[in-house]
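User: Predict the complex.
Assistant: Input components as received:
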Amino acid sequence: MKVLLRNIEKKGYTADIKDYLASEGYQALKKAITLKPEEIISEVKTSKLVGRGGAAFPTGLKWEFSRKSKEGPKYVVCNADEGEPGTFKDRQILEKDPHLVLEGMIICAFAIKAEVGFIYIRGEYNHAYEVLEKAIKQAEEKNLLGKNILGSDFSFQIKLYRGAGAYVCGEETALLDSLEGKKGQSRVKPPFPTFVGLNNNPTVLNNVETFANISEIILKGGKQFSQVGSSACPGTKLYCLSGDVNKPGVYELPMDITLGDLIKNHGGGVKGKLKAVLPGGVSSSLLTDKDLGVTMDYPNVQKAGSMLGSGAVIVINQERCMVDIAKRCIEFFDYESCGKCTPCREGSKRAREILNNIAGGRGELSNLELLKELQEVLYDTSRCGLGQAALNVVVSALDKFPDEFKKHITKQKCELNVCSMNKGGNV
Amino acid sequence: MKKEKLNQIMEKFENKQQALLPCLHFIQEEEGKISEEVMNFLAEKLDIPRVEIYSVVSFYSMFSLEKQNKYVIRVCASLSCYLNGTNKIIETLKEVLGIKIGESTPDGKFTLEEVSCLGLCDQAPAMMINDREYGNLSGDKVKEIIKSC
Ligand SMILES: Cc1cc2nc3c(=O)[nH]c(=O)nc-3n(C[C@H](O)[C@H](O)[C@H](O)COP(=O)(O)O)c2cc1C
Ligand code: SF4
Ligand code: FES
């Protein structure tokens, strides 16, 4: 069963509104405005939909909080800042079926009583920006957006806002700061955006894929949605397969699929022999062939010691050196840390230096304990998820492939000949 | 500096400061950098301290205080691309252009940058040149692309 790619996979389907309308498009909105806002929220709660941006928070509850918080202006914000390495699913929907996202946002606005919405889209997604610009215009022409939508007394407009190249702006509070024209640095939570969001007003902020599920839930009912896939975490998910895999791409599957099934039967298998997998991008912890039976929903991936995040499944084969992979991942976090809190800013820098030393044959065994300690500190004291997750790959690599690290340190040897030893390296 | 166009952008936002990023995007595309003059103008118009504007410009990787050349090459250096051969692509570019990461060619044509994931991981290794996306790169393909610029 497909929900998110149901249109995109039809032959000849385009992003034009006429194709969306010919595929039951905006029927959910028509139905929604005949309902009471509470009824819409209750349908979304019944569906058991959780956010697809990474934190897996129940969407219906988020909407309810905003609905019930203080009167006055409220906002709907779509997080289209897709930046977790290995993630490229939102781009697909935005470029090929933009109205699916717009319809979800409009229904949300009706449910929480918002009049203005924003799509915060990463600066590099030029094509998606243009597609959305046109889609918004077409929806306005058909009175699906703008004043008195479909003749009702409900009005709502959507504006586009471009990010400018900062991974941390995908974090919801950093995004809000950026959307206000400031540096994108995380705010202290609580208060959560549902109470104090954009311009200090209640704001619902959801991922592109989350909004794309809404029309299905309204049309077919939350109950039916809740019966798809995994009972704890129903619905389908867009999995992004990349790395050492034969058929990289976006796959929509019910969340009771196992990791092994996903890689083997959908991704065409591993290129080479499997060594490890990151199920949720470089913010998640490494899994290995022992975990191929894990069901790819949020609670089960967590039970396996990792996290599903945005669904960026990065496959790593046996030719890869884990010290090198860990080093590459910490470089990313060091570069992207917004610098607001010390543990993340300094911790990712130190971890980077240590890994650089180990990879260059200049490490010490005591470094390994230090890395684990650093992770604990970062996890406990960082202000946002970036710092909390920064050392996940590093420490899970250490846990699962300790010998590789030890050989780099005691024998100054990279058995896979990936790390160039004793060449000084740049710290 | 196109003051008229900037004024038009500013009019679209109720909350003044919100116009800052859209204005900076516009100028970056038009002029290849954010100059002192532009920062002063925006500080006054948007009623934001100059230092705040400066810190916004330096925070975001898509804005630059130094002049960027006509073609800005952004090569993805994140994991999925790395596994598929980013290093080779970067080596080729350095060799063909004769510059390092972060540098610009003296003829005013190219600027070379390493960036985080571009959302093209299924076509790794990937890069962008200005607005255009290029995936499934190889050394030879990169040479062709540069030649055709
Ligand atoms: C460092 C960091 C980056 C994030 N990047 C994104 C992103 O690119 N897109 C996204 O939807 N959520 C991202 N998130 C999660 C958001 O903070 C937030 O949980 C999400 O957008 C909420 O929407 P949802 O409930 O629909 O998932 C990120 C979180 C962190 C900590
Ligand atoms: S954890 Fe890192 S990215 Fe998040 S607020 Fe602190 S310094 Fe910024
Ligand atoms: S990792 Fe290179 S585009 Fe995503």
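The radius of gyration of chain A is 22 Å.
Let me know if you want any component modeled separately.
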